[in-house]
Specification:
Length: about 425
């Protein structure tokens, strides 16, 4: 007997802006690892992972133990930007396990609790350092929902929600935007160097190495190196937004490592806190640290419980390369299944890197239908892209091989039904 789901309070009281709950109307009650359970006791395999905020899974026992112990000893919860033991441990561990092994010399700013806070700080800092206003962004980009972040995003629907002009930004074509028909940076270089082009020299360029919300668009390593060289030669700051693709999502801790570049500014959020709690950081080269005390701040920039779980995640998963190797191996498994589906059905393609993979449909409605059928069979997967034409997979990096194969079999069956 099926128990009726009571969603009355959500429809009566919660804003119409809610979105995920429309695709997944279950009322979830608990979660562990790669699974969510609704209040009726039905389990759902999670290939969404909090939009990339749960790289280490739900209620990861190692992180949970560290958090419980910290709260039990009355550790600091809210600390603004005051010195705390939890912050010290995070900074020391981050330097030891992330920055130093990669030869990265970055200052760390805690701008607020979310990815868009990190992006806003990056944009503001680039403008302050250079004295210039314009930021170059890319087609297909998504950087957040506050006005600055929205101004460098590409989605027309989200941009329209701003209600005011989104100015001082210039979009450029992302890698392969013209399907290889146009040289990568010739137009960009030409307008930068042409005094008659009307393009003011920008303060910075902001880029995602893999555009998740934009449809799992993957930038080639050589394209990223070309962009970095262009910025360096023209005194333009390069900002890499690693909010969703950082913390191991593509394999290495930072998604830009594959290109061998060192961005001037990097934004991190989502899985940096480890446990799904709000935390964000903006990293930048020391010579760019021109802030005056308190010039950019936020009440919740010192989320100490997130420092605790972030430190535990770094210690447990980033003291060696085991997670990175596992992520790349599992990513290849997803690629294999998606390639088979692409070969089996017309109008289906695939792309991705590591454990962010997209199944691309010529008919956007089919991607939506595949995700709907998958949900009916107990799998959470979302769509992305300008027309929701991509089934985007973001499983926890800790998903087991058996769980991964189970979820992929559900997606394969759903795809076969929709494309039959």
């Amino acid at each position: 007997m099926t128990t009726a789901v009571d969603t009355t309070v959500f429809t009566d009281l919660e804003s119409e802006v809610r979105s995920y709950s429309r695709s997944w109307p279950a009322v979830f009650a608990s979660a562990s690892g790669s699974w969510l359970r609704d209040e009726s006791g039905r389990d759902y395999l999670d290939f969404f992972a909090g939009a990339g905020a749960l790289n280490y899974g739900h209620n990861n026992p190692v992180l949970k133990r560290a958090l419980i112990d910290y709260l039990a000893m009355d550790g600091i919860t809210h600390g603004l930007d005051m010195h705390t033991v939890a912050k010290r441990r995070f900074l020391e561990t981050f330097r030891q396990l992330v920055l130093a092994p990669r030869g990265l010399d970055y200052k760390v700013q805690f701008p607020g609790p979310t990815g868009t806070n990190a992006v806003e700080a990056a944009l503001k800092l680039a403008r302050k350092v250079t004295g210039r206003e314009s930021i170059v962004n890319f087609t297909g980009a998504f950087h957040g929902m506050t006005l600055g972040s929205l101004s460098v995003s590409g989605n027309a629907t989200k941009r329209a929600g701003a209600g005011v002009p989104l100015v001082h930004t210039t979009p450029m074509p992302f890698d392969n935007y013209f399907d290889g028909e146009t040289p990568d940076f010739h137009w960009f270089e030409r307008v930068l160097d042409d005094a008659g082009s009307g393009l003011n020299r920008p303060a910075g360029v902001i880029v995602e190495t893999v555009q998740g919300e934009g449809g799992v668009n993957v930038a080639r390593a050589e394209w990223l190196r070309g962009l970095a060289d262009l910025c360096a030669s023209r005194d333009i700051l390069l900002i890499v937004d690693d909010v969703q693709m950082g913390c191991g999502r593509t394999g290495p801790f930072f998604s830009f490592e594959v290109a061998g570049i060192t961005p001037d500014i990097v934004t991190l959020s989502k899985s940096i806190g480890g446990y799904g709690m709000p935390m964000a950081v903006t990293l930048f080269k020391p010579e760019l640290d021109v802030w005056s005390p308190g010039e950019h701040n936020g009440t919740f920039r010192g989320n100490n419980p997130a420092f605790v779980t972030a430190t535990a995640a770094l210690e447990h998963y980033w003291s060696d390369d085991a997670l990175q190797r596992s992520t790349l191996r599992k990513g290849r498994r997803i690629e294999e299944i998606f390639a088979n589906l692409s070969d089996s059905f017309d109008g289906v393609g695939c792309r991705g890197r590591g454990m962010v993979q997209g199944l691309v449909f010529d008919d956007p409605g089919k991607a939506v239908k595949v995700c709907g059928l998958a949900y009916d069979d107990g799998l959470l997967a979302e769509t992305s892209g300008p027309s929701d034409e991509v089934v985007k997979l973001l499983p926890p990096l800790t998903v087991t091989d058996a769980e991964l194969d189970h979820g992929l079999s559900i997606l394969a069956e759903a795809t076969a039904k929709v494309c039959a």
